[in-house]
Amino acid sequence: MQYTFSPRLKNASLILAVIGVVLYGIGFFLHQQDVANSTEYINGLIEAHPTQFFGDYISDSYASMNTDHAGHMEHLTNLLKNRPWAAFYVPAYLSFGIAASALFFLCIQFVANAGWSMVVSRVMEAIASFLPVGSVLVGIIVLGSYFHMNHLFHWMDADLINPDSEKYDIFMANKAQLWLSPNFWLVRCIIYLVVLSLMLPVIKNATRKLDDTNGDLKVYAQLYKKSVIYLVIFAICSAAFAWDFVMSLDPHWFSSLFMWYGMVSYLVSAVSIMAIISIYLKRKNSLPLFNDNHLHDLTKYMFGFSLLWSYLWFCQFMLQWYANIPEEAQYFQQRMAQYPLYFWMLIINLVAPFLILISSSMKRRYQIVFVMGFVIIFGHYWDFYNQIMPAAVGPFHNFGLMEIGALVGIGGLFTFVVMNAVSKLNLEAKGHPYFHESKIYEYPF
């Protein structure tokens, strides 16, 4: 069964990408005017919102607690300059994580010998096809940071590890000896992006070969082994790039749960996109074997991962907030003080999925799941916004043209790449030994 990329959807995705670029460009131009008059702009904001710029929670965000007024103003100016980069970084990182997680979820099906999911396995494959593009998008941020084109990762400031500098930070000096060494960080980031991207054609070629050989069990065994390899690679890389890409934005803060917290966030987003695309293809008669039994199982993962994300968020927040260790509590103090909508994301990411998707009958309703898929994706965009923006831009956050443009533009690009990949795949994985089981699958109520 083949899907023909709808000209209407193709044009819409490309138009969204162009609109995103235009909005981002306009926002960037307007932002540069604020940067050109940064002293006046910052002083005006300080007078209007003093609590956003002064408080106990701010000390960890600054390079040093002992800097003078000039150093303080320099730091604020750097935060202001970070906004275009941060606006781009949030959707870029999320889309990269979604693609990597989609391939992870697909490999889990192969390794677990799952039967129910083979009807939608090519949808997972198509979503994973964005992985090389997502790697390029994140790579732009990585290279821009390494070559000091931005100040997203302020620990890259050489003065922080210079004992003769007023900015000297002994904590950062200790970390810079190994893990937060810029050169080592760059090497690690390149490894994550390249290795994960290279595994995509390995898995796709194996599934194609399985179809070509009509389900040869030797080929299936090879697919199994390659899937295991990707699971191991993803387990290591997803933990490490969560630390390097996001947690190191707040280098004084640490959470042992963070790697799981981040992974579940883009994993539930990936499953939501699987459900959205499967429903769309069903309506276009391109995925006729997909039925409410498969939808029910996909929605169970949307529901379950939403609860797992909420559990990890609560554990991370409550344990650190209750312990009240300064370098840990400040992470949340800053978000509470500068980001008043921080806790509201729980309504989208926990309350809505829990109340709406808890019923088995609701899990089988196409329209409900379709809408909830978009709600969950936006909720986790919001989550990454709250992870990245406070450290990157501090009090200068705003959901303006740059943020909207980056989200719409990358969303349009993601749609085009994924649906183009769908159109090039045989949507029926007839070579898979469990495809027949998936065709006749019924959820055992």
From TrEMBL:
Key word ATP-binding present in the record? Answer: no
Q: Where are the transmembrane segments?
A: 12-30, 86-111, 123-147, 185-203, 228-246, 258-281, 301-321, 341-359, 366-384, 404-422
Record keyword Transmembrane present: yes
**Signal peptide location in the record?**
none
**Which keywords has UniProt assigned to this entry?**
Membrane, Transmembrane, Transmembrane helix
Name of the molecule in the record: Quinol:cytochrome C oxidoreductase
List the lineage, top down: Bacteria, Pseudomonadati, Bacteroidota, Flavobacteriia, Flavobacteriales
